Amino acid sequence: MLYLIGLGLADETDITVKGLHVVKKAHRVYLEAYTSILLVGKDRLEAFYGRPILVADREMVESNDEAILFGAETEDVAFLVVGDPFGATTHSDLVLRARQLRIPTQIIHNASVMSAVGATGLQLYNFGQTVSMVFFTDTWKPSSFYDRVKENRQIGLHTLMLLDIKVKEQSEENLARGRKIYEPPRFMSAAQCAAQMLEIEEERGEGAYAPGSLAVAVARLGASDQRMAAGTLMQISGIDLGAPLHSLVLLGKAHDLEREYISEFAISRDVFDRAWSIQFPGKQ
Fold first, then answer.
1. What are phi and psi of 147, to 5 degrees?
2. Coil, strand, or helix at residue 207?
3. 53-58 long-range Cβ contacts below 8 angstroms, 24+ apart
4. CA angle, 4 then 10 then 13, to 5°
5. 102 — alpha (psi -120 to 50), left (phi > 0) or beta?
6. pTM
7. pLDDT of 60-90, one tens digit each?
8. Residue 182 has pLDDT above 80, yes or no
9. Which has fewest Cβ within 10 Å: 135, 146, 255, 271?
Protein backbone atom coordinates (compact mmCIF):
# COMPACT_ATOMS: atom_id res chain seq x y z
CA MET A 1 0.00 0.00 0.00
CA LEU A 2 1.16 3.52 -0.83
CA TYR A 3 0.01 5.98 1.82
CA LEU A 4 0.02 9.72 1.11
CA ILE A 5 -0.01 11.39 4.51
CA GLY A 6 -0.60 15.07 5.18
CA LEU A 7 1.63 16.58 7.86
CA GLY A 8 -0.22 19.83 8.49
CA LEU A 9 1.44 23.22 8.48
CA ALA A 10 3.90 23.81 11.28
CA ASP A 11 5.79 21.10 13.14
CA GLU A 12 6.14 17.40 13.91
CA THR A 13 3.10 17.32 16.21
CA ASP A 14 0.66 18.37 13.47
CA ILE A 15 0.42 14.88 11.98
CA THR A 16 -2.89 13.12 12.66
CA VAL A 17 -3.16 10.11 14.94
CA LYS A 18 -4.09 7.99 11.91
CA GLY A 19 -1.10 9.28 9.97
CA LEU A 20 1.32 8.66 12.83
CA HIS A 21 0.06 5.09 13.18
CA VAL A 22 0.87 4.40 9.53
CA VAL A 23 4.29 6.08 9.73
CA LYS A 24 5.29 3.90 12.68
CA LYS A 25 4.43 0.65 10.89
CA ALA A 26 5.47 1.50 7.31
CA HIS A 27 8.40 -0.32 5.70
CA ARG A 28 9.78 2.95 4.25
CA VAL A 29 8.95 6.59 4.94
CA TYR A 30 9.58 9.39 2.43
CA LEU A 31 9.29 13.14 3.00
CA GLU A 32 8.40 15.23 -0.05
CA ALA A 33 10.63 18.26 0.31
CA TYR A 34 10.13 20.67 -2.56
CA THR A 35 6.50 21.85 -2.92
CA SER A 36 6.48 23.12 0.67
CA ILE A 37 8.33 22.79 3.97
CA LEU A 38 7.50 22.37 7.63
CA LEU A 39 8.92 24.87 10.08
CA VAL A 40 11.11 22.20 11.70
CA GLY A 41 13.86 19.99 10.32
CA LYS A 42 13.83 16.30 9.37
CA ASP A 43 15.63 15.42 12.61
CA ARG A 44 12.66 16.65 14.65
CA LEU A 45 10.30 14.52 12.58
CA GLU A 46 12.48 11.42 12.97
CA ALA A 47 12.72 11.90 16.72
CA PHE A 48 8.95 12.30 17.12
CA TYR A 49 7.94 9.54 14.69
CA GLY A 50 10.64 7.16 15.88
CA ARG A 51 11.55 6.34 12.28
CA PRO A 52 14.28 7.22 9.78
CA ILE A 53 12.96 9.38 6.91
CA LEU A 54 14.15 9.46 3.30
CA VAL A 55 13.98 12.89 1.66
CA ALA A 56 12.24 12.86 -1.73
CA ASP A 57 13.30 15.83 -3.84
CA ARG A 58 11.74 16.99 -7.11
CA GLU A 59 14.02 14.80 -9.22
CA MET A 60 13.08 11.65 -7.33
CA VAL A 61 9.32 12.30 -7.30
CA GLU A 62 8.99 13.45 -10.89
CA SER A 63 11.68 11.38 -12.61
CA ASN A 64 12.51 8.43 -10.37
CA ASP A 65 9.22 7.50 -8.74
CA GLU A 66 10.07 3.82 -9.22
CA ALA A 67 12.28 4.08 -6.14
CA ILE A 68 9.32 5.29 -4.07
CA LEU A 69 6.86 2.75 -5.45
CA PHE A 70 9.24 -0.21 -5.36
CA GLY A 71 7.74 -3.05 -3.34
CA ALA A 72 4.57 -1.14 -2.44
CA GLU A 73 2.45 -3.96 -3.88
CA THR A 74 3.34 -6.10 -0.86
CA GLU A 75 4.61 -3.69 1.81
CA ASP A 76 3.52 -0.30 3.21
CA VAL A 77 5.26 2.83 1.95
CA ALA A 78 4.47 6.20 3.53
CA PHE A 79 4.87 9.39 1.49
CA LEU A 80 4.71 12.45 3.74
CA VAL A 81 3.45 15.76 2.35
CA VAL A 82 3.44 19.13 4.09
CA GLY A 83 -0.14 20.38 4.38
CA ASP A 84 -2.60 18.10 2.60
CA PRO A 85 -1.51 15.43 0.08
CA PHE A 86 -3.55 16.96 -2.73
CA GLY A 87 -2.20 20.47 -2.30
CA ALA A 88 0.04 19.93 -5.36
CA THR A 89 -0.71 18.26 -8.70
CA THR A 90 2.55 16.27 -8.40
CA HIS A 91 0.93 14.10 -5.77
CA SER A 92 -2.10 13.30 -7.91
CA ASP A 93 0.35 12.17 -10.57
CA LEU A 94 2.08 9.85 -8.09
CA VAL A 95 -1.26 8.24 -7.24
CA LEU A 96 -2.01 7.74 -10.95
CA ARG A 97 1.36 6.05 -11.47
CA ALA A 98 0.69 3.78 -8.50
CA ARG A 99 -2.68 2.82 -9.99
CA GLN A 100 -1.01 1.94 -13.29
CA LEU A 101 1.18 -0.50 -11.36
CA ARG A 102 -1.87 -1.84 -9.50
CA ILE A 103 -0.52 -0.57 -6.19
CA PRO A 104 -3.32 0.23 -3.72
CA THR A 105 -3.29 3.75 -2.29
CA GLN A 106 -4.77 5.49 0.72
CA ILE A 107 -4.88 9.23 1.45
CA ILE A 108 -4.69 10.60 5.00
CA HIS A 109 -5.66 14.24 4.92
CA ASN A 110 -4.54 17.15 7.08
CA ALA A 111 -4.83 20.93 7.30
CA SER A 112 -3.48 22.98 4.41
CA VAL A 113 -3.10 26.67 3.65
CA MET A 114 -6.24 26.36 1.49
CA SER A 115 -8.38 25.91 4.60
CA ALA A 116 -6.21 27.42 7.34
CA VAL A 117 -6.18 30.78 5.53
CA GLY A 118 -9.58 31.21 7.17
CA ALA A 119 -7.55 32.27 10.22
CA THR A 120 -7.29 35.67 8.53
CA GLY A 121 -11.00 36.13 9.23
CA LEU A 122 -11.81 36.19 5.52
CA GLN A 123 -14.65 33.80 4.74
CA LEU A 124 -13.56 30.77 2.73
CA TYR A 125 -16.58 30.75 0.45
CA ASN A 126 -15.59 34.25 -0.70
CA PHE A 127 -12.30 32.99 -2.18
CA GLY A 128 -11.84 32.56 -5.91
CA GLN A 129 -9.03 30.97 -7.91
CA THR A 130 -5.80 30.36 -6.00
CA VAL A 131 -2.71 31.58 -7.85
CA SER A 132 1.04 31.13 -7.53
CA MET A 133 3.68 33.86 -7.56
CA VAL A 134 7.16 32.87 -8.72
CA PHE A 135 10.45 34.67 -8.24
CA PHE A 136 11.02 37.14 -11.07
CA THR A 137 14.37 37.30 -12.85
CA ASP A 138 15.83 39.99 -15.08
CA THR A 139 14.62 38.13 -18.16
CA TRP A 140 11.54 36.25 -16.90
CA LYS A 141 8.57 37.97 -15.28
CA PRO A 142 5.51 35.81 -15.94
CA SER A 143 2.20 37.59 -15.47
CA SER A 144 -0.33 34.78 -15.97
CA PHE A 145 -1.33 35.21 -12.31
CA TYR A 146 -2.60 38.69 -13.17
CA ASP A 147 -5.46 37.40 -15.32
CA ARG A 148 -6.67 35.06 -12.59
CA VAL A 149 -6.54 37.86 -10.01
CA LYS A 150 -8.43 40.15 -12.36
CA GLU A 151 -11.14 37.52 -12.88
CA ASN A 152 -11.51 37.05 -9.13
CA ARG A 153 -11.72 40.78 -8.50
CA GLN A 154 -14.34 41.27 -11.22
CA ILE A 155 -16.72 38.96 -9.36
CA GLY A 156 -15.75 40.20 -5.92
CA LEU A 157 -13.74 37.20 -4.69
CA HIS A 158 -10.60 37.15 -2.55
CA THR A 159 -7.39 35.75 -4.07
CA LEU A 160 -4.99 33.52 -2.16
CA MET A 161 -1.44 33.94 -3.47
CA LEU A 162 0.90 30.99 -2.86
CA LEU A 163 4.51 32.16 -2.87
CA ASP A 164 7.49 30.57 -4.54
CA ILE A 165 10.08 28.46 -2.76
CA LYS A 166 13.38 27.32 -4.22
CA VAL A 167 14.80 24.18 -2.62
CA LYS A 168 17.64 22.20 -4.19
CA GLU A 169 17.59 24.33 -7.34
CA GLN A 170 20.50 24.66 -9.77
CA SER A 171 21.72 27.85 -11.40
CA GLU A 172 21.36 28.08 -15.17
CA GLU A 173 25.13 27.70 -15.54
CA ASN A 174 25.37 24.61 -13.36
CA LEU A 175 22.32 23.11 -15.04
CA ALA A 176 23.81 23.69 -18.50
CA ARG A 177 27.14 22.17 -17.45
CA GLY A 178 25.49 19.19 -15.78
CA ARG A 179 27.01 20.01 -12.41
CA LYS A 180 25.10 18.79 -9.35
CA ILE A 181 25.69 22.03 -7.47
CA TYR A 182 22.62 23.54 -5.80
CA GLU A 183 21.75 27.08 -4.81
CA PRO A 184 20.88 27.98 -1.20
CA PRO A 185 17.16 27.65 -0.41
CA ARG A 186 15.05 30.75 -1.06
CA PHE A 187 11.54 31.53 0.14
CA MET A 188 9.49 34.41 -1.23
CA SER A 189 8.24 36.93 1.30
CA ALA A 190 4.84 38.60 1.26
CA ALA A 191 6.66 41.89 0.71
CA GLN A 192 8.32 40.62 -2.45
CA CYS A 193 5.03 39.21 -3.71
CA ALA A 194 3.32 42.57 -3.23
CA ALA A 195 6.19 44.39 -4.97
CA GLN A 196 6.04 42.04 -7.95
CA MET A 197 2.26 42.44 -8.16
CA LEU A 198 2.65 46.21 -8.32
CA GLU A 199 5.34 45.87 -10.97
CA ILE A 200 3.02 43.84 -13.21
CA GLU A 201 0.08 46.20 -12.64
CA GLU A 202 2.26 49.11 -13.72
CA GLU A 203 3.29 47.16 -16.80
CA ARG A 204 -0.19 45.93 -17.81
CA GLY A 205 -2.27 48.83 -16.50
CA GLU A 206 -5.59 46.99 -16.60
CA GLY A 207 -6.67 47.99 -13.10
CA ALA A 208 -6.85 44.51 -11.57
CA TYR A 209 -5.61 46.15 -8.38
CA ALA A 210 -3.71 49.25 -7.28
CA PRO A 211 -1.05 50.28 -4.75
CA GLY A 212 -3.91 51.17 -2.41
CA SER A 213 -5.71 47.82 -2.73
CA LEU A 214 -6.14 46.03 0.57
CA ALA A 215 -4.52 42.67 1.28
CA VAL A 216 -3.59 40.45 4.21
CA ALA A 217 -0.06 39.07 4.47
CA VAL A 218 0.40 35.85 6.43
CA ALA A 219 3.59 34.35 7.86
CA ARG A 220 4.10 30.86 9.37
CA LEU A 221 0.41 29.97 9.23
CA GLY A 222 -0.50 27.47 11.94
CA ALA A 223 2.65 27.99 14.01
CA SER A 224 2.82 29.43 17.51
CA ASP A 225 4.54 32.54 16.14
CA GLN A 226 2.11 33.00 13.25
CA ARG A 227 1.87 36.62 12.09
CA MET A 228 -0.58 38.56 9.94
CA ALA A 229 -0.55 42.09 8.58
CA ALA A 230 -3.42 43.88 6.86
CA GLY A 231 -2.81 46.92 4.71
CA THR A 232 -2.41 48.19 1.20
CA LEU A 233 -0.18 46.40 -1.30
CA MET A 234 2.19 49.37 -1.08
CA GLN A 235 2.42 49.00 2.69
CA ILE A 236 2.89 45.24 2.53
CA SER A 237 5.66 45.63 -0.04
CA GLY A 238 7.70 47.32 2.69
CA ILE A 239 7.10 45.11 5.73
CA ASP A 240 9.18 42.30 7.21
CA LEU A 241 7.18 39.41 8.68
CA GLY A 242 10.23 37.34 9.47
CA ALA A 243 10.93 33.71 8.66
CA PRO A 244 9.03 31.72 6.01
CA LEU A 245 6.61 30.47 4.87
CA HIS A 246 4.54 33.45 3.70
CA SER A 247 1.35 33.87 1.71
CA LEU A 248 -0.82 36.80 0.73
CA VAL A 249 -4.55 37.36 0.23
CA LEU A 250 -5.81 40.17 -2.00
CA LEU A 251 -9.28 41.25 -0.94
CA GLY A 252 -12.30 41.08 -3.21
CA LYS A 253 -15.63 42.32 -1.86
CA ALA A 254 -15.55 42.17 1.90
CA HIS A 255 -18.18 41.78 4.59
CA ASP A 256 -18.36 44.00 7.68
CA LEU A 257 -17.47 41.01 9.85
CA GLU A 258 -14.37 40.44 7.73
CA ARG A 259 -13.39 44.07 8.18
CA GLU A 260 -13.78 43.85 11.94
CA TYR A 261 -11.58 40.75 12.05
CA ILE A 262 -8.74 41.81 9.75
CA SER A 263 -8.57 45.35 11.13
CA GLU A 264 -6.89 43.86 14.20
CA PHE A 265 -3.93 43.05 11.95
CA ALA A 266 -3.76 46.54 10.40
CA ILE A 267 -0.24 47.86 9.83
CA SER A 268 -1.71 51.34 10.36
CA ARG A 269 -5.35 51.65 11.40
CA ASP A 270 -5.68 55.12 9.82
CA VAL A 271 -4.32 53.92 6.47
CA PHE A 272 -6.46 50.79 6.66
CA ASP A 273 -9.65 52.79 7.33
CA ARG A 274 -8.94 55.23 4.49
CA ALA A 275 -8.19 52.42 2.05
CA TRP A 276 -11.34 50.57 3.12
CA SER A 277 -13.53 53.66 2.56
CA ILE A 278 -12.10 54.02 -0.97
CA GLN A 279 -12.30 50.34 -1.89
CA PHE A 280 -15.69 49.74 -0.26
CA PRO A 281 -17.59 53.06 -0.31
CA GLY A 282 -20.71 53.04 1.82
CA LYS A 283 -19.44 50.18 4.02
CA GLN A 284 -18.07 52.12 6.95
1. -65, -40
2. coil
3. 53/29, 53/80, 54/28, 54/29, 54/30, 55/30, 55/31, 56/30, 56/31, 56/32, 57/33, 57/167, 57/168, 58/34, 58/168
4. 70
5. left
6. 0.91
7. 777 778 889 999 999 999 999 999 998 876 7
8. no
9. 255
